[in-house]
Fold this sequence. Notes:
Number of strands: 8
Shape: globular
Radius of gyration: 33 Å
Amino acid sequence: MREGCIGASPIKPTVAITIRTLEVYRQTHRVCPRLSIHAEAKKLCHLHGIRYHQYLADQLWVAFDVYIEVQRRVDTRVDSALGRDSPNWHMLNACPACHYEVEDEPTMPFSFQLSMDGNNSAKLVDPILRHGNERPDPRDQRCYFWMSEEYVDRFKHEVCNARQQALLPTEVPDSGQATETNDTWVDEPDSDDSSSSEPVSVCLDRWHNAAPEARKRMFAVFRKSGIFVSVCRHGILLTICDMVRSGELMKYPLVTIHWLMEVYQRPFVYGYDIKCMFEKIISRSSLSSTVHQLGVDGVVNGFHGHAHNRLCQVQHHCKYKVRAGKEDFETCERMFSESNGVAPEIRNASEFHRHQVLDEHFRFSKLDKYASLSTFIYHNYVQALDSIRTNEDFLHQFPMSPDDFEADLSDERLYLQTAASKRKEDSVEIDYVKALLELEDAEDFQTLDFRNINGECSRKEIAGVTRWRTNTSKKLLMKMDVVEAFENQMGLTEHWSPTDPRRVAAQSRITHRSFHKAADDVERLVVMWLLELTKLQMSGLGYKLRTQISKALKTRANAIRNAIERYNKFAARLDPPRPELTWEKIAEYSFAGEFDLLCETDEQIHAKCWASPANRQAAIRYFDVQCSKEELTRCNVEIVRLLTKMRDDEEDYAMSISMLQSTDPPLAAELDRRWTYLCNVNTGHHSRIRQIQQLAGYTGSFSPVQPSNSAAHGSMHQEIQDDRDDEPGEIADMQSALEVILGRPDEI
């Protein structure tokens, strides 16, 4: 180590790697996660002109493990020198813009915003399926943001308890080793169900259908089937845990919310794909009282929310959620697009090295996101100002007031809630009419004249027709038995005739159900098409996956055309008929939420003010303005927090370096090196913040202020301030003592 090298074995190393080489690989792997340790070993072999062997990569990995451990111990000493070694300090200060609260901040209902979601790319293949036996590795170098499996399993029975309180169609709690029935993506909706009344889990069912096939099944070959993370709106990781032999179970978001509430003790708003269903689970869990006490709330993500029905959108979507700003809560998807680069490397690694690679990736991601923090705020500020400037001119000329838009949203929400709670039709009568129609179709078989089979037909053809007649006759008898069973149940003595009012009413309900089912199919297929098209444009996809998605898009296009034809067929049978649907008409809808209007056959809906396309577009602009104003308030707060954090960092590093120069010069040099990098980043922040403050319409502060809770921040700035606050009292005490000893001047 003193010679600048790290050996591959602790006693008699034959191969040593320079620290400079290990540092270069570490930084290269951070910015290019696809560069594996084996590729680095091959590169070094070529540079030194030797033949590559597998053991050389193993030795490089051993040296790299030692180097990472050294870096972690240096980090521990640096944290101690800066006074940042208190419990949960790193979580409480993960993101300066979110967590570094200051005095006299504008009142905000939520202290910070975050997103949470699961990702199944970071899998770990079970060692049983690999060659050889896995050697036990007790090392555990996971960072502060990891939640252990034992901690997560504290909530594995919460869903079962919630289902006992209310029958919710959701997952089964995992007991020990989860199976596919525990996966929330496994329970598929019944495609044959044409009921017009939507189930409670309609949004979850739609998201099941729209999810990729790979996400709907978790195989037993994986010991770890992915990760579940929570990320602040600026992209900095807050928490992470492994998904163990399962899909995205409800225990993962539950334990995430629990830990965030336990650490921060402040209100926050979270974004989650199926927040509408998760809210019902959490309201019946042991976290219910704490969630309400802290004021924690959630929203459905901006893009994912378009797979939800309209009622869910007006209740949970982030664009209608007051005080959520312009955040789309899709930060997890952007983070996963970066972390997917390490998936090939960790899939067959040991559990220790899998955590090591993920730790390194997210630690560097935090540094990277901090460096772009002011740029994030700048773009959000400009976007909010442009939105206000553009939409307010339009709204001033539109003949509706802000109260009208709010009233329309409430009226639409009430209407959809009433429509969703309508009484279900009598299923016995509908099933009877269905059986009656099938019987009449089968009876048409009796009118066929089989004597037309003449000598021109071969014996094989005659045998086929005879077999078909025999099978159809059996089916006819079965349908007759079904009709008789319904008639006995209903106490009927004869069939309902085609003109019977009861049959006409039941047939009308069947037609409406078929129409609703056709509209749901169109919506589902369009949402799946949009999701697959978006995924095709993501980076890091292999050739086979791209080919598979391309084929799926072609198939989806044909399926959408067929679904539109079915919709138009059933729409024409309604009384009065509904307008014909075309692809051009679909393109005018705002994703899937607008499709619910297709299902409404009540003509009174067209008299509603919020049903007018012009009013709906105006309402979108109105709520966009409200969200933009909320975004400006949050950006103003985040600017002051960032300025205050940079000022405190400057004082902390300066004092620590000054104190350590005489007692621990190597540690002082390390602090000075880190401060040089941080100072360069902060210089960029100051430059960008000045650009924000020069914007026309800037309403925030221009200088840092005193942190509101320096004890939580663990800053040395508070110690300096405390010393300064104590100075007047100490001077007064010393002056009093001198007066007692020397006597008062007026007494001399």
